[in-house]
Amino acid sequence: MMGLSWVTDAAGMHVLEAQLRSADGVAILRHGMNICGLLFLWQVFSHCCPPLLLAGWSAALIGATAIAIGLDRHRRRANNAGVGPSDLRRHALGALLQGLVWGACMGLIARSGQTEQLVALWTLVSCIMVCGAISYAATPFSATAYLLPCILGLFFMFDDGGQLPLRALATSYALSLLAGCFIYARTFARQHSTSAQLAEKSEVVSLLLREYEVGGSDWLWQTDALRRINGVSSRFAETLGMAPAELEGASLVQILAGSGWDNGRFAAGLHSLADHLKRRESFSNLVLPVEIKGQWRWWELSASPRHDENGIFLGFRGVGSDVTAQRESADKIAQLARFDPLTGLPNRSHLREVLDQAMETARGRSPGCGFMMIDLDRFKAINDTLGHQIGDKLLSQVARRLRQVCDAGEFCGRIGGDEFAVVLPHVADGAVIPRLASAIIGALSAPYQVDQHMLHVGASVGSALSPMDGRESEALIRSADLALYRAKDDGGGVHCAYEPQLHAQAEERRQLELALREALEKDQLHVLYQPVVDTDQGVVLGFEALVRWTHPQLGAISPVKFVPVAEEARLIGPIGEWVLRTACMEAANWPDDVRIAVNVSAEQLAHPSFVTAVVSALAQSGLEARRLELEVTESVFMGEDMGALKVLDQLLALGIQLSLDDFGTGYSSLGYLSRTRFNTIKIDRSFVVGASKNTAESLAIIRAVVTLADSLGMTTTAEGVETEAELQMVRRLGCKKVQGYYFGRPMLPEDAARLFPAPQRAAIG
Ligand code: C2E
Ligand code: CA
Ligand code: CA
């Protein structure tokens, strides 16, 4: 500020420049005062002062002024290179020269005048000093250089002893002018350094903002307190495809709503934006669709409210960016997440969405929309025996066939595993679903060629129709699922439509399952024994163990009802094992050529610890293995499960007998008989009943089975013989053993024991 020290920072330079510019601005005042002073001096002193002195002094004043002007001009010309403290010192030199000339005037010229001239001179000098002080106020160094010689001059001017008070007054006058200059200069410098800082800051900010707008995909936006766009940046306008002037003052929400403004359809994001603006809350990363020249883009906006220093709300300021590309790739990912990667079919959640939508559209219509669930029959066996790779290939082929069967209006997908589904958004009449179901069953049941394997699977279909089978998608799916369950229960390969009683049945089943879980521990199970008799002599050869369940509230529940529930709920393992142990214990008390037959479910056989359990039951009871007979049905061969065959071989190796139960009711493939060495084939009661009524088919089947069994070294048991006539008939047909009410109902163990009047065997019938 004084020009005495080096200033290097931008703010200091700026102050220096402002000081000099301010001094330059008022220099003319001083030059004018110099000329006026010169003329005034000639006027007052020309008659009393030696002309030579006056002329010499005048020349000095003109010279000093010229030098000062010259220095200033030189500096201004070199101004481009920037100012420095040396410029301030040169400026002070000009001031010093002029101050010296005026100081010399007070010391030399004043002596030649009287009191009258002296008063005039003082008046002039005080004007000159004020003028100098004003013109050098911003540059205190120059002001000092100017005023100090003047003060010195005043000392000489008032050098009389009697003029001492005047000298003191004049000096303090000059000093206070100087002090005034310093005070002003300090304020001036402060003001300029602050404004320089501010200017620099705003320059930096605008530079950054410019860079932000030009470089990135983002832009700045701003509104006033009335939510109108203002201070529109060119990028913001460009992004909207409008001129900045068009946007200025327009409502932000209206601009973003596009055509939606007219029809009143606002996107959720826009609602949220309007809400934030109204509540004057800041928000960030708000994503909303924006219509630009008929094209929809996705924008992400963030902003905060602006307030002035008094806390008055001014509007919002924020940033925005176009996130259409990111959004689209996110949509693509979501899309991928909606399809099953293996088959390319829509997955469960996608199906659910389509169903929800279809039900919404069909609301109020009857029939509304249909939902079909498809489950492959015997798929698990293929997957287990041939491996997942083959299973996967098979599923892909299934998906392809399903897609071919369904037409454009029907939406098919994969629920998971070997379950598929079809949504029928519009069911025109009651025939549509059965027709499609049978087309699906037909298409999916045709043989598949997968690698070198020729595979056969079937399909079961369950269907439900809105609104009667479910008003909500969840209920409709559950109904279709129950119908599918029923279709599977009926042996598969069929279509079942939902019926209300299925729901009741499912509920009953659920209740039964809950009760069954406790049946074992609560001792509600017991075993009855039904005699198996030799057809010719009527000798008891053994007994079949048949489980019974008596529930305290529900009463006696048939195994026909609860065994399938136990199989499904994975309860058959412990129940079956309990029956096996109980029966073996009981049979151990019988004569040692009487056998005990125990029923075994396919689920039990599949359990890895089954053989161990059998061995343990025999060991615990002390029963010989040859006296135990295990009855399995054809279902254990379902899906050509090699595991079951292996277990049967292990059991045979232990010396246990095997019989094939309910022959002819299941899958009826005589192929199994050659694979496992069954000891006995049990002919189902339905054939016995049929044969006794002389049904040709039943007679033929019994004859064929007996012939086959004989040739394979097996025996046959006719089940459910109730009358003498039936007994005669099965005897004629060649069955070796019979079982049925005619010889005895399933009985309590003590009743069974009474049939052996120890020590010899009983003969009945
Ligand atoms: P199943 O193995 O075919 O058993 C023969 C069924 O026929 C028994 O029914 C028996 O009471 C019945 N029956 C016997 N003689 C006659 C007759 O002259 N006329 C008629 N109408 N029926 C007769 P139950 O005891 O109700 O058993 C039904 C099914 O439950 C059994 O059929 C068997 O598959 C299953 N089951 C029974 N106990 C067990 C068991 O401990 N474990 C397993 N896994 N299943 C069992
Ligand atoms: Ca049986
Ligand atoms: Ca049977």
Can you describe this structure?
This protein is of the alpha/beta class and 765 residues long. The protein has 4 domains: 10-196; 216-330, PAS domain (Beta-Lactamase); 339-498, Alpha-Beta Plaits (2-Layer Sandwich); 525-754, TIM Barrel (Alpha-Beta Barrel), CATH 3.20.20.450. Helices cover 54% and strands 17% of the residues. The protein is built from 28 helices and 20 strands. Strands 12-13-15-16-17-18-19-20 form an 8-stranded mixed beta barrel, surrounded by 4 helices. Strands 6-7-5-10-11 form a 5-stranded mixed sheet. It has a 4-stranded antiparallel sheet with strand order 1-4-3-2, sandwiched between helices. Strand 16, helix 23 and strand 17 (657-663) form a beta-alpha-beta unit. Helix 15 (388-405) packs antiparallel against helix 16. The chain is rod-shaped. The N and C termini lie far apart (138 Å). The mean pLDDT is 89. The structure holds ligand C2E and calcium ion (2 copies).
